[in-house]
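Researcher: Please predict.
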Amino acid sequence: MLITIVSTVIVLGVLIFVHELGHFLTAKLVDIEVPRFSIGFGPKLLGFRRGETEYVISLLPLGGYVKMAGMEEMEVIEGKDERRRAGGEAESGAEEPAAAARGPRDFESKSIPARALVISAGVIMNVIFAFVVFSGAALVWGVEPAGPARLATPLAAELPTGAQALTSVPMGARIVSIGGSSVENWDDVARVLGTAPAGATTIRFADAPAVTIALPGDEKARKDLVRTLQYVQQPVIGGIMQGSAAAAAGLRPGDRIVAVGGQPVRYWQDMVRTIQARAGQPTPMVVQRDGSTLPLVASPRAMADTLADGAVRSVGRLGIVPVLPEPVRPGLGGGIVHGARETWTVVTLVVGFLKELVTGHQSPRNLGGPILIGQLSGQVARAGLEAFLKFMALFSVNLAILNLLPIPVLDGGHLMFIAVEAVRGRALSLQQRSRLMQVGFVLVVALMVWAVANDVLRLFGV
């Protein structure tokens, strides 16, 4: 519990600070006065003043904000007792100051590009943070090499409609092109399959006849197809689950599986197919261990498996995972390229999730709140520093993109105000902005309540 609490505080605190620091530094860069830097919304809990800025921690840990001079609409998220303008206390019914009365360091006195840059800086900082973490992790811990472009022949029941031709491909056939695009490794295969135009697509192999499949146009079906297809892996055990059928049979990490049920095993997927069909049946196995060949008997345990059409079948499982290739440390240039690629991948995943949420392909029940964040933070913290930092990078991109939603209170809402001003030639009135901020604040709180409710329901298995 202590690890979970501490890791959650670190994740939220660091990422909110990074985001608001972007606003703060950019505001200073364009010479905007900053009366307040807050972690959290609502009434102040504690803080201190240094120079012109008061640094505070506020009551509601829903994010944070940087209040800039001239942004009276920010009073909505500060709390009623904190209403303050650059020139002193503000009357609740005060009129909006005329442009001529604005100070030269007020937010509204700056040009539209300067204001847009200040508002965008938090999102930019979160993305830069993720890029630095992914790049640094690659340099320190290395990068798992991409799998070979050799297809593990899927079963027909695992494939969506239109892709059944792949079942005729021999196990381990090497893919050379998809729809005219050359591929060299499995990362290329996944990328091309995920982005190629929908419809008939020819996949060519170096050592097998070409096949033509129908790539689905539906985004969810496309992701299911890419997720279903796998590259062949060596039949070497990398890990064994405690209390599993494999542990009971005496299998060990590092064992190379030579035969299962009297059938020779060339790839990991050969073993999986045989084991899946022998749930609850004592199954003879032959493994190589330390240069010796050992016969063993394992009884795969029946587990539920969901097919592409939603049907559920019972399959045998040993409780083992294949050995992973050793990470490779790239040079500085390679680390930068990897960091950029990983950051972009997370961006596309988050944007894709939001798109599916709007179109109904994702349920709102999949939204998570602070409890889920805490659970995940605790889990990755226990997995080690690398996993923890990468989780922070992933969550940082989430925070960046969610802040771009056009909801008043969020950065996207402020950018929307600026865009309206650019189009109509004048800004929305203070009264209009304040009312929209109130609506946005209520909406953000409602979303948070929904997310927390989802978290609670998950805790009770609902």
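Model: The CA atoms of residues 321 and 447 lie 38 Å apart.
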